[in-house]
Amino acid sequence: MLPLNTDRLRFREMSPEDLDAMAAMLGDPVVMEFYPSPKTRAEAAEWIEWNQKNYATHGYGLWIIEATNGEFVGDCGLTWQSVNGTQMLEVGYHLIPDWHGLGLATEAATSCRDFARTRLSADELVAIVHPDNRASARVAEKIGMQRIAEDFSDSSVVRIVFGMQLADSHLFQPQRSNTR
Questions:
Q1: Among 99, 103, 132, 100, which Cα is nearest to 7's?
Q2: How far is CA 147 from the centre of its chain?
Q3: Spatial strand order in the sheet of 159-165
Q4: What CA–CA distances, in Å, run from 137 to 10, 144, 159?
Q5: At CA 91, angle to CA 85 and CA 93, rounded to 5?
Q6: Dist CA 110 CA 91 (whole Å)
């Protein structure tokens, strides 16, 4: 299962053949500015393995996103994350710097949001954002999320949790009876 391709992007599962591209992206200090540190090549390999386990367990994870010409753009997808001890479905995204500022993270995250709603029938979706990462916060806001909480799971920084309900609220409203 994959999110729908967009006008400019296509999705595919990560594989060990993506190690060079993933190691370059996850090792880039600009991409990893709001993480404790850039990832090593070995950690990038673990990242790929983690996503492959997510595909096997859940049917989804972070996917490789490519331009329609096949050029590597980054990753985007859905993973389960702990928010103050509660597991929540998160949309996450990383793009190499050459692709920053073009609306591609929003485009990819929108497709993943729609996948969570239509294919997974998820009720809620979150994005966990470092408080200084305005670009990531803007992506969350552009796909319809709003600030819902603070996450204290990481002892080094309190992260902002953006979220949204995916299920139509009328589906959960009790039906009124016309009988008296």
A1: 103
A2: 16
A3: 9-12, 62-67, 72-83, 86-95, 124-129, 159-165, 146-151
A4: 23, 11, 11
A5: 120
A6: 9
Long-range contacts, 137-143 (Cβ 8 Å, 24+): 137/162, 138/106, 139/93, 139/105, 139/106, 139/109, 140/91, 140/109, 142/106, 142/109, 142/110, 143/91, 143/106, 143/109, 143/110, 143/113
Kindly report the pTM of this predicted structure: 0.90
Alpha-helical segments (H) within 32-170? 41-58, 104-118, 134-142
Q: d(Cα 64, Cα 13) in Å, to the nearest integer?
A: 6
Tens of pLDDT, residues 14-38: 999 999 999 999 999 999 999 999 9
Per-residue model confidence (pLDDT) at position 12: 98
- The token pair at 44 is 């990038």
- Report the alpha-carbon angle 155-156-161, nearest 5: 75
Q: How many CB atoms lie within 10 A of CB 111?
A: 24
